[in-house]
Amino acid sequence: MSAEYSASQITVLEGLEPVRKRPGMYIGGTGIEGLHHLIWEILDNSIDEAMAGHADTVKIFLLEDGSVSVEDNGRGIPVDIHSATKVSALETVLTKLHAGGKFGGEGYKVSGGLHGVGSSVVNALSETLKAEVYKDGKIYQQEYTRGKPNYQVKAVGETSKNGTKITFLPDTEIFPKIQFSRKTIIDHIRQQAYLTKGIRIEIFDERSSENIAPEDRQYPSSYTFHFQGGIAAYVSHLVRHKKTILSEPVYFSKSIGDAYIEVSFTYVDDYNEHVFSFANNIHTIEGGTHLTGFRSSITRVITDYAKKLAAKDSDVLFTGEDIREGLTAVISVKLPEPEFEGQTKSKLGTPTMRGQVETVVNQALAQWMEEHPSESKSIIEKISVSAKARLAARAARDAVIRKGALEGMTLPGKLADCSEKDASKSELYIVEGDSAGGSAKQGRDRKFQAILPLKGKILNVERARLDRMLTSDEIKALIVALGVGVGEEINMEKIRYHRVIIMTDADVDGAHIRTLLLTLFYRHYPDIINQGYLYIAQPPLFGVKFKNNITYVHSEEERDNVLADLKAKNNGVLPGLNVQRYKGLGEMNPQQLWDTTLNPENRILLRVNIEDAEKADEIFSNLMGDEVAPRKRFIQSRATSAQNIDF
User: Fold this and answer.
1) Which of 126, 389, 495, 639 keeps 20 to 30 A from 337, CA to CA?
2) Which CATH number covers residue 615?
3) What is the DSSP secondary structure assignment for residue 66, as one 8-state letter?
4) Whole-angstrom distance, CA of residue 84 vs CA of residue 166
5) Domain that residue 256 falls in
């Protein structure tokens, strides 16, 4: 790998002007996620230097004025004149879209940034940006306003260090709210530190308390991440609240061709698969060829070992589903010129990567199992239990299918279906209790709104396999109503509603039922969430009635504002005022339920999404899993945030 890094390696493809006009195309949006994406883009460049072997430390500073600094000890962005642009390479990188050391030159063999456009995008979307380069004993500097340089690159001092420091202030013309989340940044850099073995990433939050969100104050103002264990340490972190059947995670790595492949995994005592895949430190949420290669290989190697271990009396054939039950794994590949599918880089498409991962896993895992017979036997025993449970679950599922329920022949009797047959125009309300269900059935629009009342609290599927889950009448009714099937037979094209809306009471029991339902969808129907079909209804908490007019509000603050407004308009005299607190949906009559929660013109719906699969998995495991201690810590740490709970 060449250590040479000069202006000749910076390739220019096109200008920068479109970024400010359509920021969403480059950072995904101008909300809180897009705001943080600015940091990720600059951080990616520093991590690319580390992956290339030229840096080992990155520092992030959150400053009082809302700006952010990212500094590394890499080679420093080149400052000599670029032959094509006739300006310095630093200015070229920061003002030209698709200009960087990652296009066909030898600047980087492996990179994870936005193909070199990251720095220029951040510059374009910042009110001000200051670049400092420590190189060849000198400090070079250039400042920009909304992407345009204020002056040419100049030397402003001497230094003994090397590296680059970028300080940027996001533009208020682009971002409606500028407040960085300490927790979000900590979670992201922790993951990046795990994926880049040996790198040190430090964060320093220098903001005063009034500029920090309340939920961030529980985290220290400075953090340092440094993991010599790499992704093996990452796997240990993922399973820290769970029971594992291995003493420590399996880990192996190998270079094959131009690619470097790392795999680490363990097994935990639950029923779900937790696999996180990365390509050049980019989280490939939808997997890709590297994940396909891993799954294919681990199934083959473990099955072969099991046959050899019990050749005579083993008559159960393992499936990939059996082998992946309870598996927690991290697959990280680094390769030149990765091919990603889609604009968001959520799936790796490089064809050769499947075979390369299979080759590495086949050899390394087979050797590990031969060298660790006791732990290998524990894996086989767990998988054998999974296989038997799968057969029991299949029998239970087939029994339901034989009744014709999952084929749409017999919808559950408690379902009040809609007349609309176009799923994209139909919605299903999952309602807590028969009383609220009755009001909802009377108040709904029968053309496009279906109502399914559920009695009591459904089974906690976090602690139950599919066969036990299918013994629950309430869950079976919901499965049948959705129409997509269950388990390995799920077909999302058959879904009967494109809006599935959870509607529960605004009390502790309602919150528990909502959590149980969210657990069911997250564990067994994640595509309903991923495709944007799952919502949570927001019924009002209060009805403020005055002079035959009623105003519905969703919080105590809204109620107080309405009362203050009424007093101001009526000189403080409010005869006949009535403020009703709705503790349950059943307290509303059908017309009130329509006006507040069912009518698309007035209602408020929260769409459920999964921003971070790792965090979501941890929350569901803590809240609904067998381990009591993590749940106790979760409740204690948030006790002060709970106010006005109805028991």
Assistant:
1) 126
2) 3.40.50.670
3) S
4) 24
5) 232-385
Q: Tell me the C-alpha distance between 505 and 129, whole Å.
A: 49
Where do we find the tokens 């061709």? 257
Torsions phi, psi for 198 (to 5 deg): 95, -15
579: part of which helix (H) or strand (E)? strand 578-581
- CB 223 within 8 Å of CB 185: no
* CA 218 to the chain's CA centroid: 22
Dihedral of alpha carbons 417, 423, 425, 428, sign:
positive
Catalytic (active-site) positions = 432, 505, 507, 509
Backbone angles phi, psi at 481, to 5 degrees: -65, -40
Residue 569 domain flag: no
**Among all chains, which residue has been given the structure tokens 């809006």?**
499
Tokens of 205: 């939050």
Rounded Cα–Cα distance for residues 511 and 623 (Å): 12
Distance between CA atoms of residues 309 and 638, nearest Å: 49
**For 94-104, what is each residue's pLDDT tens digit?**
988 765 554 34
Number of H helices, E strands in the chain: 20, 24
Sign of torsion over alpha carbons 587, 591, 595, 597: positive
- Condensed to tens digits (0 to 9), the pLDDT of residues 62-99 reads 999 999 999 999 999 999 988 887 889 999 889 887 65
> Cα separation of 274 and 613, whole Å?
9
